[in-house]
Amino acid sequence: MSKKRTGFVAWYDKVTAWNVEDLFVKRKPPGPPRTIFVNEPLPEDHYDHKHRIKKEYTYEPNQVITSKYTVFTFFPRNLLEQFRRIANVFFLAIAVLQFFPKFSTISPGLVILPLIVVLGITALKDAYEDVKRHQSDRRVNYSEVRVLAGGSYANHNTMKAKSRTFVRGLRRSGHGKTKKPEGDLQNLEGAPPEALDASSGPQILEDDPALEYDDGAPPPADDEAHHGLFHHHHGPGRPHWKRTIWEDLRVGDFVKITDHEAIPADILICATSEDENVAFVETKNLDGETNLKSRNAVAALTHLRTATACADPKNAFRVDCDRPEVLMHKLNAAAIVNGERSPVDLQTTLLRGTVLRNTSWVIGVVMYTGLDTKAVLNAGGTPSKRSKVERQMNPMVFANLLLLGVMVAVCGIVDSVLEHRYYPRNAPWLFDDNRRGDNPSINGLITAVFALITFQNIVPISLYISIEVVRTCQAAFIYFDSEIFDEKLGQATVAKSFTLSDDLGQIEYIFSDKTGTLTQNAMVFRRASVGGKVYIDEPLPEEDPVEPENEKELLKSTPDLAQVSDVLSASSSQKHGSTGDIPHPLEASGVKLSGGVLQRFRNATLSTEISNATATQSADRLRIDSFWTVLALCHTVLAGVDPHTGALEYKAQSPDEAALVQAAADVGFEFRGRDRDVLFLRTPFSPEPQRFRLLNILDFTSSRKRMSVLVRRLPLAGEAGQDTGPVVLLTKGADNVIFERLADGSDELKDITETQLDEFAREGLRTLTLAYRNVAEEEYQSWLERYQEAIAAIEDRETLVEAVSNEIEQGLTLVGATAIEDRLQDGVPETIADLKHAGIKIWVLTGDKLETAIAIGHSTNLIASDANIVIIRGKGDTGRSIYAQMLRATEEYFPETGILNDPMVNTEQLSAEASNGYPLHRVNTGITSIVGSQNGQRPGGYVLVIDGLALEEALSDDRHKHLLLQLAIQCEAVVCCRVSPKQKAFVVKLVKDGLDTMTLAIGDGANDVSMIQAADVGVGISGEEGLQAVNSSDYAIAQFRYLKRLLLVHGHWSYARNGNMITNFFYKNIICIGVLWWYQIYCGWSSAYVFEYTYLLFWNSFWTIAPVIAIGLFDRLIDDRVLMAIPQLYRYGREGKWFGAKLFTVYMVEGVVQSAIVFFIILYGYFSPTARNDGYDVAQYEFATVMAISAAIAANLFNGLNTRVWTGWVFFAVFIGIVLIWVYTAVYSVIAPGWFSTPVYGNDHFLFHSALFWLSIPLTFLLALLPRYLWTAWSFGFDPNDIDILRWNYRLNPQMDLIHDAYLRQSKEELAAQEQAVPPTPYSASRPSMTAARGSQIDMSTGLHSQSRGFDFATEENGVAMRRIQSNLSGVSPAPNPERRNRRSQILRSIRHPLSRRKRPPTEISEE
């Protein structure tokens, strides 16, 4: 943790940390528990004595505002934000002084004009950015949803008034008009996913009728039905569904959501289109997980299936809700129907931000709206970010103000002393200085005020204008950079905040989401190890793999779910109505590529072997048949028929399960669906589809790490026997879990498969191991009795079920393993490797499960192939506490760091753990501990992996946070899995505040908004999850790989440019102020100007402004090709080499020295010998003008000397000021006083004819620049840094091989550290090629060491869909039942359409 500061520094930090938002944004505490009354009036205790609803019973509107300003708050809030700059306060004070006649130098209005310009430009920029936010908010709030209206229905629950936002106040849509979709599509950029989902289109129901009736009767006449879109009132007529905008939605409203629509609020599910009242939702915008989640309706409300039923007063009920809860996985409520309470939790709720999938419609009641919804509670407010350079500038401005205060005090004190000394001597310039307002005592104070005005340019107001202009241009450079323009999407990189460009060059920590940011959310089946023989994916020449640019088109080609029919049996077809020409799944023509699967699996050798084995009962046939049968049947995938193509398509909750079943179909083992509990499989070895009775499913969980199905092989059509076939157990899971359950005699195949799994894992693939077992009838019957008892148990059901399941999952026969690729975004491995070479630490924060996070960490080069993974898990029943786990990891692997000696670290738990018998390396878990004695000592360093449950405790107090941070910074990378959006933000703040370091967060979903806003720089990727992350970000990019150029090139350039510009700006002002200061010695410290005033007035406007602007716009440390090829150069930005107090001090001292050279040499030249031949004395403006010209030339050439690249624009900028001051001097000197007061009239006669003028100017500016020139030449020739060397070499040889021939001046220790941190192996474009074995995994909760072989599998654990299948199977008797085949299919009616546009790999629900 950063050291605590005390004294003045602590006070200053407290002042600068003050947030303007605290004045304008009310941090509302969670509201009280609520009772929602449906179809019944509010009770009397909800009203006060005036019969008005009490405040605690009014709810937040469904209007969500992410913007910062309104019409009323813009002016005061923006001004307060701008006056956080010390300089602006100073400028205002100077301008106010000018309004007093005694202190006025020129027109007060002219003095305050620059400040108004600065404030105005900044305000316009802020207003533009906020108008964009308002437009995005409007697109969300004006999305549409169907709400119950008509009949006698009335919603008595009351809402608070909506806010009058900026855009809403200026533009109001007409009544009864809907916005055309095209109008919204023109402004898609910045739209959150709730309004515009990438896969579902805008939430504008333009093609639907205004009113929807679902009672079967014809709709009424238009004049009775239509009441306008934007009116939420209930007209006469039958109950119906009416389109209403989201922000008019009220607590207690009935809403109807249809397939593909986003959920507008937190809604209680009453009924769904499925008989089982199940709904499927996509939650990736909330938790980053892509597998569909199943939700079910409240059983007591399932009769509310039509508008008429919902509006019937007889169907009155109440919903008791807890107060709004920020925790994403916690919701407590109850529905009270006819006096009986039915529990309501997350399983019966649809949360705002999720999207309905695979369900025709859902009817529900709104429970929480707007600011009370979980999505908004986790989002956080829009922060006011200030760049690090700007924060560093404030102390510099403060130092200049202190220097100004000293100068003011000296002038005031010395002037007062001199007046007191010379007034008694009757000094003529003090005549009559004995009045109340004009005497030696008061004149010292007046002189001090005048000094404040005279030396005000020590804090240049033009600096802030220049910074705004330069940063705006730098944002334009980023926008027009073709290297980070995505041609596929037609999208450029956009700087949504113009003030943070220099922060991009100082990033030390990057926090990245995984799904959608690092991965493309698409699967490819790459390897199959079948009985010890590996088959590699070999696409046919005419069927090339899907290239990245075509992947989205492939995903888009999946038909709309609403257009695909699920016809798995004749009976179910009849039940759902006529299916026309849609074939039965058994008769479908081929298998269509599933959504989320990028390409088919092809292998010529395997095809040949299958063809050869078809005719004979060979060993190959048994080997092949066993493997692919397990793969084709051990799953929960459902099948549907595409009505457009007539092809079969698989529908899975996760793309990786779809990829496995798709691969089996690609080689000929086609899963043809199921009819209730009968599975159909078409194989190359049988002309007729094989039939299997699905007996039991042993579900996959994070602890089991395996899934099994028990099936009974049924006779083929025409064969004798009914349900008399053998029982077979089919299993897939993690390699170590399967291996320890194998039967004796499998060692040889196990060793071969183990080696192959190591190879798959080294390639970054996700692996599964397959096995089967023939189960005797008697054994199955005995086991089934115990299993049914376990699932019916009231207490400790999960433990009993797992124990019974484990009994039958023994003695397995290994058949092989699979390896699928979770396709990465283009260039992700190379980008992460280069960012690590740049010295940036990368943390991955994801909602995915631990195995998925580790697998992606390996494939993206975040986790080196020989790294050691330290795992911190949430405490279980017997596991260590989180603090003890972190202490053990520190003691075992980082004993030399001194962390355990830190007074903030409590080591008492170490001795307590030891006394309780928790040895780190001696936990015996069978053959799971398969790594040798070098566990934890791999050369690739350490990577910390911590799950959300552990993180919750680790972030609970300062003691835990301190140890977590100290442990994390010792590791090469950190992976946080199973984290909520709030936890992501807390982790970012932990590092940002604890280490006082620069952070960047990047993500693409709504669940990433909190961390994007918490980081110093937030980057949003405009992916398929919607644009909520982009809307809340500071920079918007199309792909993760563009982050490299954004940081290494634009960030490095912007930071170096801005730092150089600011220090040169301070310098050029101090040289001017220095000349004025030295003159005070000769003017009695009277605060008089040595220059004619216009020379001072135009100093920052014309004479010296151009070179510093040129530095900010056109200077380049080094060519972008070099920066991209050698990321190690980024360390200069990370270390703050281009801006800081040291550089500021050096430039200030140089300015003072140069001002002394200019002033005293010219003064000596003009006053030592006679400067004229006419006998007259030298006039003040004669020699002062020479000083002004010389100082301006020195300042411009000094700025040019500090510019690394001299382009035509730089030449122009350096010399334009010099030319202007010469021209101005010549012209101004010949203007006669008859036009206006010209105190320098005729000055050209004395200047341009004087030898001293032509001698002193070159002499003074050359002497002034000499120290800087000598230092620059010496450092470049004798002590060059890496950038100097590379810049010189690249100029001499632009074609040099930068990667192999570049030379960096680094110590051997630095090089060795880098080699250890990042292995120098080349990385392929798609996936790294690793040759070393993977490092070990150390689970600190158990002390278990194991080796990762890439296991990963995602599915919903204990979901409603699984429970539905189990309910149809658990009670099934193995005895024959002829009637079973004639029952209508019920099992597939909850998912009627194939998944569309699946973009990411899914994950499990929990890791508990």
From TrEMBL:
Protein name as catalogued: Phospholipid-translocating P-type ATPase
Taxonomic placement: Eukaryota, Fungi, Dikarya, Basidiomycota, Agaricomycotina
